[in-house]
Specification:
about 575 residues, alpha/beta, 16 helices, Rossmann fold, 7-stranded mixed beta sheet, about 20% strand, 4 domains, 18 strands
């Protein structure tokens, strides 16, 4: 409204308000950034009030808003989203005063980038009320070759008379250049994401490794990573994790990179996700949401789909909150009754009912699997289960040993549903070899609980092959993560054999295998298979784990294969 003042108007006298409202009648030529007359009017009023005064000017030279601040800053009104876009500027510029001879502030530059203003102009109001130096900030096109480059350009002029009077043509050329340089989303991408991590206690190496893993999770989920932010703090901010200032920097980067996602490398509390989303207006994902999305894509069997849905429902239940006018009254009691509370409780009740149904259904399927396992036990067929960190090469090993065609991809969680194949040793000995879901650091608790039916397969195993990616520098941390999950299951008496995979890429694989009393192999080239099979036979038959009447002690030269 052109008859209103915005901002800090408290305490203004009637004649002062009248002078400020008269600002709306002023005009600036389209080619001018700011006229000398307007600059003197603003500095005189600003010095008289002891407050910053600002105006938003459109490209026709009309003043759209008059804003009153305090001595240090002013807060802009909501100016909508007209013309805002990745390659277009807002179509308005901010001209305001500074009471001290300071350059553009951080708030000035943030407003410039986030609101995509044509320009931000700060005119120094001298003590005599006349305009002094003029500081000007404009956006610059994003440089793909310099991801860390500045997003704005600053210039200082000695007086308002020294300002460039070719503003209109300059803005037109800038928009054309920005259109050419604007980042675009890759075909098939689920979004452009900035990854955010925060650590405390000086554990930089661990935080960097975790961010590398988060990037792999994004690649698996089809998310395009455009930037990463890792912040060290003495204490994690309870509201925004990374702190208000850093969050504003991230928001500025998201505008330049055309990012629409923020992915955090830790689980967010519901209130944290809401607060960060409100501040940034971007989609917010945490580590658990990303893993759940990958599982939802990968699950093929009825069991797997039910287990993933159960984990999703448990994750979403505490995050069901009111949004908008219809769900605004959530407290209950006086002032809290109404349709919002009813709608919210209905959503929660549906979610709880669905969780109960899913748990009952999964329990019935678990009973069916137990019947099948009893049948295998009666047939006296030994069970070997392949476990390990995700993308360690478990499915590749299964395929190589049994000449099968289980899905193999260089992505995390390529296998979710257990896959079993029969493997024949010499002397008519047979085992059932089962590939299981891969583990990951900090696997969500609800996901582990939901996949308990899958993990039940491990309880009947006569031998666990713990496959490790020997080429990964985080191999020991991955071993610890897998062993931590296995420790939650009744597997204390189940023998396990460490299998250090990818020895063709990792010269240290043999040394690692020696330290863990394991075996070094390459599932892709079949190196080390003879030793692996001999060690497996030794555990299953020679040490009496499995009774095999008529079997002698000869080790296998190689093995025959039969798929189930």
């Amino acid at each position: 409204m052109k008859d209103d003042l915005f901002g800090n108007t408290e305490g203004l006298k009637a004649n002062q308000s009248k002078r400020l409202l008269a600002t709306y009648r002023r005009r600036v030529h389209q080619s001018e950034l700011c006229s000398a007359e307007l600059a003197r009017h603003l500095t005189e009023v600003s010095r008289e009030l002891g407050r910053q005064i600002g105006v938003l000017i459109n490209r026709r030279g009309e003043i759209e808003n008059v804003v009153v601040g305090d001595a240090h800053q002013l807060v802009l009104p909501d100016i909508g989203r007209a013309r805002a876009g990745s390659s277009r500027l807002r179509g308005v510029r901010l001209v305001h005063t500074h009471l001290k001879d300071e350059p553009l502030t951080r708030d000035d530059l943030t407003d410039l980038v986030l609101l995509r203003l044509d320009a931000v102009v700060a005119i120094v109001a001298r003590e005599d009320g006349l305009p002094g130096r003029v500081h000007v900030g404009t956006l610059v096109p994003f440089d793909k070759t310099k991801p860390g480059s500045d997003l704005s350009r600053q210039e200082t002029f000695e007086s308002v008379h020294a300002l460039d009077n070719e503003f209109e043509s300059h803005i037109s050329a800038l928009e054309q250049e920005m259109a050419r340089a604007t980042p675009t989303r890759a075909v098939g991408s689920e979004g452009r994401a900035i990854l955010c991590g925060v650590y405390s206690g000086g554990n930089l190496a661990g935080a960097e490794a975790s961010m590398t893993e988060l990037k792999e999770l994004c690649r698996t989920a089809g998310v395009e990573v455009v930037d990463t932010v890792l912040q060290g703090r003495h204490q994690v901010d309870p509201r925004t994790l990374v702190g208000k200032g850093k969050l504003q920097d991230i928001l500025v980067r998201s505008m330049a990179l055309a990012a629409d996602l923020l992915v955090f490398d830790r689980d967010l509390q519901p209130s944290q996700a809401r607060h960060i989303g409100d501040v940034t207006s971007l989609r917010i994902l945490d580590r658990t949401q990303l893993i759940l999305d990958i599982f939802a894509r990968r699950a093929q069997s009825a069991d797997g789909k039910l287990q993933v849905e159960l984990a999703q429902q448990k994750y979403r239940l505490p995050r069901l909150v009111g949004a908008g006018e219809a769900l605004s009254r959530l407290a209950g009691g006086i002032g809290g009754r109404g349709p919002g509370e009813t709608k919210l409780e209905m959503d929660r009740r549906r979610a709880r009912d669905r969780i109960t149904w899913l748990e009952e259904r999964i329990d019935r399927l678990s009973t069916d699997r137990e019947v099948r396992r009893r049948q295998r036990r009666r047939a006296d067929v030994p069970q070997i289960s392949i476990v390990g960190y995700t993308n360690a090469g478990k499915s590749t090993l299964l395929n190589a040993l049994t000449e099968s065609d289980t899905l193999v991809e260089d992505k995390l969680f390529a296998t979710l549903d257990p896959t079993s194949r029969r493997l024949r040793f010499p002397h008519q000995r047979e085992v059932v070899l089962t590939d299981t879901v891969g583990f990951i650091r900090d696997l969500p608790k609800d996901l582990v609980t939901a996949f308990r039916a899958t993990l039940e397969e491990l309880e009947d195993a006569d031998l666990l092959l713990h496959v490790v990616d020997a080429s990964d520098p985080r191999a020991q941390q991955q071993i610890d993560s897998v062993e931590k999950i296995l420790a939650t299951l009744p597997l204390e008496k189940t023998p396990r054999l460490f299998v250090f995979n990818k020895m063709d890429r990792a010269p240290a694989a043999a040394q690692l295998a020696h330290e863990k009393n394991g075996v070094a192999i390459s599932a892709s080239t079949r190196q080390g298979f003879t030793e692996l099979l001999e060690r497996a036979e030794q555990v299953l038959w020679r040490e009496g784990k499995v009774q095999a009447p008529g079997a002698d002690e000869a080790g296998p030269a190689f093995l025959g294969v039969r798929n189930n």
